[in-house]
């Protein structure tokens, strides 16, 4: 579904987290809220994959790109941005994994999914924007 | 990782950076929510906010942790990235 050169998430084929929707029978009224939550969790997993793709692209680029006679990755302004992207990406990844394991264990997952979704929306966007910034014009 | 004897300096520095900034962020937002009660020295909230900040600074500030993380991610030595 997500294959192709201009696919939404190039790493979706190798995503770490897979969500399978449960059967609707005898689920009660909450089953739809749960379906929405599970959908959001899948979306968080996509955000993690996208963030990793950004980082995997940016790290070799900033090491290769030279300015003022040396690699731009020797500058703290660039190196710290990369470090912050990796730290926030791990934050999203851990929150998403925690929510997914609550689902797997059959525990309540509404709160965990909401936390993961907030983090993924906020930090995922900033990872992407920082990636574009570090790439400069080509980004 | 520490329990299993694996090298964990990258993960430890990431955890310290994230914990420090999130801890101070939450503490300062709680102070802001409580207004003058949060800022005054009559209650403990002001002390907790200072404690959160010192936990952020002790044993490596944000910038030191970022140096450790960035060196490992970019494969740089301490001479190249200082």
Question: How would you describe this structure to a colleague?
Answer:
The complex is a heterodimer of chains A (139) and B (82). With 139 residues, chain A is mainly alpha-helical. Chain A has a single domain (10-135), classed as Butyryl-CoA Dehydrogenase, subunit A, domain 3 (Up-down Bundle), CATH 1.20.140.10. Chain A contains three helices and two strands; from the N terminus they run αββαα. In chain A, strands 1-2 form a two-stranded antiparallel ribbon. In chain A, strand 1 (66-67) and strand 2 (70-71) form a beta hairpin. In chain A, helix 1 (30-64) packs antiparallel against helix 2 and helix 2 (76-104) runs antiparallel to helix 3. The two termini of chain A are 25 Å apart. In chain B, helix 1 (9-34) packs antiparallel against helix 3 (45-57) and helix 1 (9-34) runs antiparallel to helix 4. Chain B contains four helices and no strands. Chain B has 82 residues and is mainly α. Chain B has one domain (9-74): Butyryl-CoA Dehydrogenase, subunit A, domain 3 (Up-down Bundle), CATH 1.20.140. Helices cover 68% and strands 0% of the residues of chain B. Classes of the chains: A mainly alpha (139), B mainly alpha (82). Chain A binds chain B through residues 59, 62-63, 73-74, 76, 79-80, 82-84, 86-88, 90-91, and chain B through 14, 17-18, 63, 65-67, 69-71, 73-76, 80-81.
